[in-house]
């Protein structure tokens, strides 16, 4: 019996673009004569994976530089949280056990949406006092709904630049409406997207979230633990949530992390407290 090992375990760009094998063959002169950089089928081949990595890294880098974005605060958290206004509307409309339960969860978590929105506004207010780009900190998120939308919204409504690093997903995630024109980006590769989360980051502010939030949080913690990046504030909003879902004490007791690793983390409850950590770290006015 032959092993049934997969040739490739990733969703390739050809899968995502729904390109058929016949479209990749380029067996006519019309196909082969195209400029390589203008040939979507050629650029979607498995052999050009490295080029696509480079392009996804380079495009946002150039556009962010042109818009004077030097420093960011990366904010992430659940895509499922909504504002307290919307949560209250859900509660009023709920009339089945399922919708009542959904409304209760929304009311429980809506404080985080409102906090992230407030945090975006606080950062924007600080930027308004700065005349030089090198002294500004801009809100950057994954560009989608929930906490990402809230942080972008706070900055956008205050008149500041607001950045979104979106990602292609099986159930497509659309950019939230609070992103500055020209600063809404779309990635296919999580790895390159996470690089852009980190390249200009001067702090990470993480609100309660699911797999994606944990992935991004532990990526940052690992980079700092292994000294791949300079240490900067990692701020977790909602101490009770984080200590309930991650038993940091047990990790310390088992010796799999050190106290120095825990010293990277700042637990806060409010947007103001998160900003105080960043302000004190960088001695901002």
From TrEMBL:
InterPro entries: LOG_fam, LOG_family_nucleotidases. It catalyses: AMP + H2O = D-ribose 5-phosphate + adenine. One of its GO terms (molecular function) is AMP nucleosidase activity. GO terms for cellular component: cytosol. It is an enzyme of class 3 (hydrolase). Its EC number is 3.2.2.4. This is AMP nucleosidase.
